[in-house]
């Protein structure tokens, strides 16, 4: 079982997201807690007003709603009654069993999973503390539920002898650690833990750690012999080390080895892509006012958006790097609605108060790539879009309330 929690400010969006899935026959309300009516007799307005009544008791907090997902192994055969019992036990473990809550079973993925919707405001007007809730309450409860209900355990790899990517810092100039040593360790872990199906996707992951891989010029011997070399970068994508051939690194990340990985996708790839789509859908469902808000929202959910170098003078489709499922995937591979073109169209057609629309121009992913010309960002390497958008300004993610929910990828 895998659990994920996410406090949020928008009650109507959260409720509408799940109810829309029900209307599309992709979900079902299977259980309610602490509502006076039976689940089959609850109207949308009654659900909404129940939470609104609690939220109005606290005028200070902005983050008043709570959304949790519980994901199970496909081999776990779980009827609705058992899923409801697991949800009750989970809410008890979070010390939220007295709150009103709704439990939806979603059928839009290959594995069984439920969504839990509740309010963070108690009947006395105080707000439930979500500070490090994932570590303090959610994770111990998840382990207890696996034992008590006989569920298959969380299959995410736990490396003991070697550091995980979450424990690894980016390459930082002047840190005192030899650049080649840091680069070799980063490359080894990425090749071991991450899923990717092309050199572009592989390079997008490397860029998150200030590394890039290159094949040399069109007529170079390196490219003619399918060679690769790696270079360390600074935050702007400028090269800070001499090129190191793949064959000279201990992890030997040669093109021949990478090609084998391209042709052997992870067994969990389908579930990983579904998870990425769901989180992008959720970020878009929040109706971000700007591209920056969307990118920062995805980053808060462990997804970075990477802009590849321009090819032939034209921007390429962006790549999503998900540090939770450890998967990199191009927007086109996820589906047409996740491409750069579709994301640009979302903002150009009007989604909230986008700065610049009144002047006839809406910022897009392509604009940010083209806009790198003449800046300190290097246009010849992949770029992390969140770094570009927040360059020179404060990351709004720092301003969120009680959002330290658990271990995050270090940046």
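Q: What amino acid sequence fits the structure above?
A:
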């Amino acid at each position: 079982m895998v659990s994920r929690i996410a406090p949020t400010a928008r009650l109507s969006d959260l409720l509408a997201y799940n109810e829309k899935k029900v209307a599309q026959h992709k979900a079902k309300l299977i259980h309610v807690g602490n509502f006076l009516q039976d689940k089959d007799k609850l109207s949308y307005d009654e659900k909404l007003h129940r939470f609104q009544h609690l939220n109005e008791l606290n005028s200070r907090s902005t983050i008043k709603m709570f959304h949790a997902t519980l994901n199970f192994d496909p081999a776990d055969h779980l009827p609705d009654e058992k899923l409801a019992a697991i949800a009750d036990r989970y809410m008890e473990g979070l010390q939220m069993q007295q709150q009103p809550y709704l439990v939806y079973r979603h059928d839009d993925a290959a594995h069984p999973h439920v969504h839990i919707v509740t309010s963070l405001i108690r009947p006395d007007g105080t707000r439930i503390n979500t500070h490090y809730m994932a570590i303090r309450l959610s994770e111990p409860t998840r382990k207890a539920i696996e034992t008590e209900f006989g569920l298959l355990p969380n299959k995410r790899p736990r490396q003991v002898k070697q550091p995980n990517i979450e424990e690894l810092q980016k390459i930082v100039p002047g840190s005192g650690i030899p650049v080649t040593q840091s680069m070799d360790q980063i490359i080894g872990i990425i090749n071991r833990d991450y899923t990717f199906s092309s050199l572009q996707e592989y390079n997008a992951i490397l860029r998150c750690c200030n590394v890039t891989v290159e094949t040399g010029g069109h007529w170079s011997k390196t490219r003619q012999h399918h060679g690769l070399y790696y270079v360390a970068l600074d935050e702007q994508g400028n090269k800070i080390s001499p090129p190191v051939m793949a064959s000279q690194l201990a992890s030997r990340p040669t093109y021949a080895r990478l090609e084998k990985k391209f042709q052997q996708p992870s067994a969990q790839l389908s579930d990983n892509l579904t998870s990425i789509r769901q989180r992008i859908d959720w970020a878009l469902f929040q109706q971000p006012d700007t591209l920056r808000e969307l990118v920062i929202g995805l980053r808060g959910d462990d997804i970075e958006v990477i802009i590849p170098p321009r090819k032939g003078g034209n921007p390429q489709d962006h790549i999503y790097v998900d540090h939770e499922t450890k998967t990199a995937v191009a927007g086109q591979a996820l589906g047409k609605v996740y491409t750069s073109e579709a994301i640009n169209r979302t903002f150009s057609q009007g989604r909230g108060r986008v700065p610049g629309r009144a002047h006839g121009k809406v910022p897009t992913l392509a604009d940010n790539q083209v806009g790198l010309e003449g800046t300190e960002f290097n246009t010849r390497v992949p770029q992390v879009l969140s770094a570009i958008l927040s360059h020179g300004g404060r990351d709004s993610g720092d301003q969120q309330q009680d959002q330290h929910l658990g271990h995050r990828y270090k940046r």
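Q: And what stands out in the fold?
A: Residues 269-285 form the longest helix (17 residues).
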